[in-house]
């Protein structure tokens, strides 16, 4: 039996649920709301053990940071096929935090202490912001976006678990950490 940690996605006909179980392929299923039958079980070339973060739908895909892997997945909502896989962060760190999106850029917090910045159009990891001990958040440029520091708090250790999911509001991204620190990062056009 599988456990469910993440918030599912529901539309008028389907329920998409992330499962928490050991081994196997991507533990993501789509169930028909009327019949209760499984429409698909997500598939990919890579394996991952669990989905613990809330599911995020963006551009007709379900986006998942791989738990106990270093992969970031985009799963086609209609077919369950993985159409996007990229390495993002250290392997074997749990992924409790879901990505946030702005203008086809994914912001994925990982337990390696970085906020990974991924362009979903080019399928490239563009950059990452180090949120570990005593580091300043430098200015990062990619495409037409600029990220620079607004607030910075000191960390006591690098194992800063991101349990919360970031949110983008207008020109800022907000995220909190297990240690009780809160970041606001300005994201603005040049």
Strand order of the largest sheet: 13-14-17-16-15
How many helices does DSSP assign? 0
What percentage of the residues does DSSP assign to strands (E)? 35-45%
Structural class call reads: mainly beta
What is the global morphology?
globular
For the record, give the distance between the C-alpha atoms at the N and C termini, rounded to a whole number.
50 Å
**What is the H/E order?**
EEEEEEEEEEEEEEEEE
Q: Residue share in helices?
A: under 10%
What's the total count of β strands?
Answer: 17
* Average of the residue pLDDT scores: 78
The radius of gyration computed from the alpha-carbon positions, rounded to a whole number of angstroms, is 17 Å
Unreliable runs: 134-160
Main β-sheet description: 5 strands, antiparallel
Structural notes for this entry:
This protein has 190 residues and is mostly beta strands. The protein contains no helices and 17 strands. The strands form 4 sheets. It has a 5-stranded antiparallel sheet with strand order 13-14-17-16-15, with no helix packed on it. It has a 4-stranded antiparallel sheet with strand order 1-2-3-4, with no helix packed on it. A hairpin with a 5-residue loop joins β7 and β8. The protein is globular. About 14% of the residues have low confidence.
């Amino acid at each position: 039996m599988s456990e469910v940690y993440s918030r599912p996605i529901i539309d008028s006909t389907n329920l998409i649920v992330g499962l928490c179980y050991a081994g196997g392929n991507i533990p993501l299923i789509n169930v028909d709301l009327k019949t209760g039958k499984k429409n698909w079980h997500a598939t990919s070339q890579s394996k991952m053990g669990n989905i613990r973060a809330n599911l995020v739908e963006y551009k007709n895909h379900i986006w998942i940071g791989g738990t106990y892997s270093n992969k970031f997945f985009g799963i086609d909502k209609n077919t369950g096929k993985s159409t996007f896989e990229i390495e993002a962060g250290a392997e074997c760190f749990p992924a409790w935090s879901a990505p946030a999106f702005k203008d086809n850029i994914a912001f994925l917090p990982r337990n390696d202490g970085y906020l990974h910045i991924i362009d979903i159009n080019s399928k490239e990891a563009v950059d990452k912001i180090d949120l570990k001990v005593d580091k300043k958040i430098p200015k990062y440029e990619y495409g037409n976006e600029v990220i620079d520091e607004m607030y910075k708090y000191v960390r006591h250790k690098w194992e800063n678990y991101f349990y919360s999911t970031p949110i983008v509001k207008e020109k800022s991204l907000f995220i909190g950490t297990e240690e009780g620190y809160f970041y606001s990062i300005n994201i603005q056009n040049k």
